[in-house]
Design brief:
- The protein has about 240 residues and is an alpha/beta fold.
- The chain has a single domain, classed as 3-Layer(aba) Sandwich (Rossmann fold), CATH 3.40.50.1820.
- Helix content is about 45%, strand content about 10%.
- The chain has a four-stranded parallel sheet with strand order 1-2-3-4.
- Helix 3 links the parallel strand 1 and strand 2.
- It starts with 7 loop residues before the first helix and ends in a 5-residue tail after the last helix.
Length: about 240
């Protein structure tokens, strides 16, 4: 998340010695995100093992909710480029996705129409919509756009979010703009935060706010000069 389970491929590439199991969050509504973990572990034959759970971007919300509801299973929580509850600070004006989140909060019907339009453009010209999404990115994110593996991940994200599983994608965006701060104190395991110093999708101040919420059990790693996806592609678990 936010694109699709394929986002986990970027993390797996950076951690070749670590077994990485992608959670297919877009198969479940936000309130059943914990079922994504249970089903993935059952498929791996590891449904009693403690896990190191990783959440990226809006997926941090899902990871926090899973860790909060299953403290018996989640031994470590890592949040990469996390999108913090909007009510925790004045973040929205500094987020590249501000128009989308404002529509989710104030005009869900218009957001649905926008997503249908994005799906049409994704079918006809995926390169065009990717150029729109990354229009204000820096050099490290631009370099990723020249990587065929990254482009394959992003192509999957466009199809999953805007075409194949649009309704679930919308449900996560709309859940994100709600006030879910009450979930944060329920997390019992240690938390690692990784945030690029030049992230314009989820500004670095979001991780600062999360560190204050989680307290002494939380460690913040600022990744110099990296942005949103380039931080995901860098993290060593």
């Amino acid at each position: 998340m936010p694109g699709s389970a394929a986002d986990a491929d970027l993390l797996a590439r950076a951690n070749p010695g670590v077994e990485t199991v992608a959670l297919d969050l877009l198969h479940y509504p936000p309130e059943l995100a914990h079922q994504a973990l249970a089903d993935a572990l059952a498929a791996e034959g590891a449904d009693t093992d403690p896990v190191h759970l990783v959440g990226f971007s809006i997926g941090a919300m899902a990871a926090i909710m899973i860790a909060a509801s299953r403290p018996d299973r989640v031994a470590q929580l890592t949040l990469i480029s996390p999108a913090t509850p909007l009510q925790s600070g004045d973040f929205l004006p500094h987020m590249a996705g501000q128009p989308v989140f404002e529509l989710a909060a104030k005009n869900p019907k218009l957001l649905r129409l926008l997503t249908v339009f994005q799906g049409i453009v994704s079918r006809l010209s995926p390169g065009l919509i990717l150029n729109m999404l990354f229009a204000k990115c820096g050099p490290m994110e631009s370099d990723l756009l020249q990587d065929p593996d990254f482009m394959q991940v992003m192509g999957t994200a466009l199809r999953e979010s805007f075409i194949n599983r649009r309704e679930t994608y919308l449900s996560y965006v709309q859940a994100y703009v709600q006030d879910w701060r009450d979930e944060l104190p329920k997390v019992q395991c240690p938390v690692d935060l990784w945030h690029g110093s030049k992230d314009s999708w989820s500004p670095p101040q979001m991780s600062v706010a999360l560190r204050e919420c989680f307290g002494k059990s939380c460690t913040l790693h600022e990744v110099e000069d990296r942005e949103h996806y380039s931080t995901l592609a860098h993290v060593k678990l």
